[in-house]
Amino acid sequence: MFKFPKSTGELFTELKEEKNLANWRNRNREEFILPLNEYLKKLIAEKHLERAEVIERSGLNREYAYHIFSGERKNPSRPKLLALAVAMGLNLDEVQYLLRYAQQGVLYPRNSWDAVIISAIEQKLSVMQTNELLYSLGETIFLG
Question: Which among 54, 122, 125, 50 is positioned nearest to 91, based on CA atoms?
Fold first, then answer.
């Protein structure tokens, strides 16, 4: 999983102590969040996956998914982002990081829908299997 060179705590401490914001920004350019599409491309490369394969497994509309990967769709919905994460085979820590990265709420086990998704990720279910599990438990499916 892509990691930044410095921890958020280190960055925060430096920022609080910095007198010259422009200098701090220049020194820490590699620490800033990339656009979501760039982060997704890095994940796919790290996992040695093919974008077309991920899109196919995600169940997302092909054109819509390509717009996410091209950056034309900057803020996909949380369920669509989760469908991509499941299609990439991300583990729970990677999914939570992706959700934070995309400024979406992390999965929360006290939320019934989220609990099903957490369980599906832990069981390494596909998007289709996850949808079947959601449906069988009376929850809204990913792409419903």
Answer: 122
Report how far residue 1's alpha carbon sits from residue 18's, in angstroms, rounded to the nearest whole number: 30
pLDDT digits (tens, 9 = 90+) for 37-59: 999 999 999 999 999 999 999 99
Encoding tokens for residue 112? 């019934």
Q: Which residues contact 90 (CB under 8 A, 6 or more apart)?
A: 43, 47, 98, 121
Query: Which residues, including other chains, have CB under 8 Å from residue 78's CB and lie 6 or more apart?
Result: 99, 104, 105
pTM for the complete prediction?
Answer: 0.83
Q: Which domains does the chain have, with CATH numbers?
A: 35-136 (1.10.260)
Structure tokens at 24: 């701090």
